[in-house]
Amino acid sequence: MERTTLDLWVGMFVVAGIGALVMLAMKVGNLGTYNMSESYQVQAYFSNIGGLKPKASIKSAGVLVGRVIDITLDTEKYEAKVVMSIDKRYQFPKDTFASILTSGLLGEQYIGLSAGGDTETLKAGEVIKQTQSATVLEDLIGKFIYNKASEPGK
Length: 154
What we know:
Layout: H1 2-28, E1 39-46, E2 57-60, E3 63-74, E4 79-87, E5 97-102, E6 109-114, E7 127-128, E8 130-132, H2 137-149
Parallel strand pairs: 1-7, 2-6, 5-8
Antiparallel strand pairs: 1-4, 2-3, 3-4, 5-6
């Protein structure tokens, strides 16, 4: 009888541990915090998306307002086409500015939306025209080294 009771407790502990790991994975993947019930899709073109991935967050003023749905290469413009799903509760003006940002120094990348002042709002399927691509750390270091090397007297 003692062996059966011990096996039962070990089994319950293993199930609780697996449940905790699943919850942790959902939290780390940032998948459990956004409800995709009512949303509309917009697009934006970027010359460099860095490490942006599908399901990345879309934030405005630090508030999660949507998710990246799809990333493809537009073969006519040779730019990355990013399709975003934005919650219908949040309506953004047509002159909204989309930029790819990084949370922390080496954290995940997300799209930050800065609302403009236009009275008309973005509709489903429209394109955000004003974008800023991801900042690539290697490019910044290369520019810094080049500027330091080209200073007079060095």
